[in-house]
């Protein structure tokens, strides 16, 4: 069961989008120096499709995207929620921040418009760092993934 601990409207997690970012708990990744250790435990409220709808409806007129932060213990369930969101709110894009280094096998990732992959490694830095191991991917019209990580660098030109 997916659970969420908190959420916020954010501007920098996905380029050119105003995102409702929802933090999912029960993270299995155990990155050294984890920046959000409270997400390692199976805590929070269930994020059922109806709970998600309730959250999104509060902000639907002011956001352009919904971004799931985490959920690597159950990636198919995250993909299913993304699919449901596209049906209930077709004007919204859907993003996913995964802490894995690669897209999950056997999961229909085409339900997402954006995916961040890459474990947290403090020595390499976040998406805005030139040495980061993380990648922000954007799905294009051919259902292929374009790497748009450069958009997080200072002074990057708009796409
Ligand atoms: S993916 Fe994020 S929450 Fe999970 S262990 Fe790594 S830093 Fe912590």
Describe the structure.
- There is one protein chain.
- This protein is an alpha/beta fold.
- The chain has one domain (3-152).
- Helices cover 16% and strands 24% of the residues.
- It has an eight-stranded mixed sheet with strand order 3-1-2-4-5-6-7-8, covered by helices on one side.
- Strand 7 (135-139) and strand 8 (145-147) form a beta hairpin.
- Bound molecules: iron/sulfur cluster.
- Residues 27, 29-31, 34-36, 39, 99, 120 line the site of iron/sulfur cluster.
Record the SSE blueprint.
Layout: E1 3-10, E2 19-24, E3 45-46, H1 49-59, E4 65-69, H2 75-88, E5 93-97, E6 114-117, E7 135-139, E8 145-147
Parallel strand pairs: 2-4, 4-5, 5-6
Antiparallel strand pairs: 1-2, 1-3, 6-7, 7-8
Bound molecules: iron/sulfur cluster.
Iron/sulfur cluster (SF4) binds at residues 27, 29-31, 34-36, 39, 99, 120.
How helix-rich are the residues, as a percent range?
10-25%
Bound molecules: iron/sulfur cluster
* Mean pLDDT across every amino acid position: 95
Number of domains: 1
How do the helices and strands follow one another from N- to C-terminus? EEEHEHEEEE
The counted number of beta strands is 8
Strand-residue proportion: 15-25%
Number of H- or I-type helical stretches = 2
Radius of gyration: 15 Å
In whole angstroms, how far apart are the ends?
A: 37 Å
Strand order of the largest sheet: 3-1-2-4-5-6-7-8
Described by strand count, sense and barrel closure, the largest sheet is: 8 strands, mixed
Principal-axis shape equals: globular
Uncertain runs: none
Computed structural class: alpha/beta
């Amino acid at each position: 069961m997916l659970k969420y601990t908190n959420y916020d409207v954010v501007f920098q997690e996905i380029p050119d989008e105003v995102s409702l970012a929802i933090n999912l708990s029960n993270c299995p990744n155990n990155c050294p120096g984890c920046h959000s250790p409270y997400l390692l435990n199976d805590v929070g409220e269930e994020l059922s499709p109806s709970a998600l709808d309730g959250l999104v409806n509060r902000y639907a007129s002011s956001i352009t995207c919904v971004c799931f932060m985490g959920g690597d213990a159950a990636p198919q369930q995250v993909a299913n929620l993304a699919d449901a969101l596209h049906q209930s709110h077709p004007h919204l894009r859907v993003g996913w921040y995964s802490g894995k280094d690669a897209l999950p096998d056997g999961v229909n990732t085409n339900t997402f418009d954006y995916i961040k992959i890459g474990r947290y490694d403090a020595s390499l830095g976040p998406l805005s760092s030139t040495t980061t191991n993380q990648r922000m991917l954007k799905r294009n019209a051919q259902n292929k993934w374009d790497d748009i990580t450069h958009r997080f660098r200072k002074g990057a030109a708009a796409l």
